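Notes from the 1:1 (GR / supervisor)

We went over the backlog. Supervisor wanted to see one worked example end to end before approving the batch request, so GR pasted a single chain during the call. The sequence is below; no edits were made to it. Supervisor asked that the structure be written out right there so they could see what the output format looks like.
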Amino acid sequence: MTVLDLNSDLGEGFGVWRLGDDSALLDVVSSANVACGFHAGDASTMRRVCRLAAERGVAVGAQVSYRDLAGFGRRFIDVEPAQLADEVLYQIGALDACARASGTRVSYVKPHGALYNATMRHAGQAKAVAEGVRAFGSLPVLGLPGSRLLAAAESAGLEPVHEAFADRGYTAAGTLVPRSEPGALLDSTEAAVRRALRLASQGELVAVDGTVLRIAARSLCIHGDTPGAVDMARTVRAKLLAAGCAVQSFVAV
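Structure output shown during the call:
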């Protein structure tokens, strides 16, 4: 792989509460997954992050979620599919309004937290997310390889984009280790760099049990709330560039 996108979850504050360093990460990543108000984010935060992304030439993606501010979108909610599709559409539209007022636009969609994990296997919710995106327009959908979400996106005529994670543990099945279990987080910059370089050069990553997984990912995520996220992202980007891998978004900005 000679080109790899770096994405991060941004805009995850709410009101006076702040999480992560959005401005610093926007100097590093090529795509920003911006919270749309359901798990985090508010109108002012969304507009501020979109403005900063536009200034830096970073692609803006809508990070849609369950309506779960109290749980930060990390609790499964059994939403009726038609309602979920409408709520996905609502979130994309809200962020796109802030993006266009800031001189950019929403260029792709990525589910957050429990919704991301649920759409790995939950066919009804995966289809609902894809339908919500399709109702807005023909936007690429970012997700895990082999997920129901990406299959539903492709069936809806949307571009499925495979991603991997620099800072999360993987099971032997290629899914993310639940955050409640040991090995869920890679908080070592060295481990994240090894993950990124192996992914870029060989299309592989190693699961927590040592299983080698083949992953043809076009985008690599570093969570904005991971401890030391800014330094981790800066180092990963520098090492990728030094290895001859260009860092750029999978969508035109």
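Supervisor's comment: Strands lie at 3-10, 31-35, 59-64, 106-111, 141-143, 160-165, 204-206, 212-214, 219-221, 246-247.
Batch request approved.
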